Amino acid sequence: MALAEGLTVTQTMTVTKLDTAIHHGSGKLEVFATPAMVAFMENTALACIAPEMEKGTDSVGIQIDTKHSKANKVGTLVTCTAKLVKVDGKKLSFEIEASDEDGKIGSAFHLRYIIDPVKFMSRL
């Protein structure tokens, strides 16, 4: 596996009504929902490692410590950057930052584990 500390990827998205707090049930306003931001952060971490994963493996998120520090309205372009900061066997640690055109809107520390999807699903 070619997973190495320092791998980084950046993705962008435009906030839609489906990404709002009112849609996610996490609030009553049409602003970028924290659950939507967290999903975007996890997806960016996954995109960071996907090209380097061994065939037949996958990863699952097990922890995310998030701060959502700024609201965004529908139509805002949001950028997310995930950096793989530590590889400890199958345990992967990420630092993630989300921003809009004015600066940081959120940050996270995220843990993922590399798994065998067949074994993982057989245990459920």
Question: How would you briefly describe this protein structure?
Answer:
By secondary structure, the protein is an alpha+beta fold. The chain is built from three helices and five strands; from the N terminus they run E-H-H-E-E-E-E-H.
Structural domains: how many = 1
Biggest sheet architecture: 5 strands, antiparallel
Q: Given the structure, what is the number of helices?
A: 3
CATH class: Alpha Beta
The tally of strands reads 5
* CATH fold descriptor: Thiol Ester Dehydrase, Chain A
> SSE order in H/E notation?
EHHEEEEH
The percentage helix is 10-25%
Q: How large is the radius of gyration?
A: 15 Å
CATH architecture name: Roll
Summarize model confidence as the mean pLDDT: 97
Structural class category: alpha+beta
Describe the structure.
The structure is a single chain. This protein is an alpha+beta fold. Helix content is about 20%, strand content about 45%. It has one domain: Thiol Ester Dehydrase, Chain A (Roll), CATH 3.10.129.10. It has helices spanning about 20-25, 35-50, 115-120, and strands at about 10-15, 60-70, 75-90, 90-100, 105-115. Strands 1-3-4-5-2 form a 5-stranded antiparallel beta sheet. The longest helix is centred in the middle third of the chain and has 16 residues, at about 35-50.
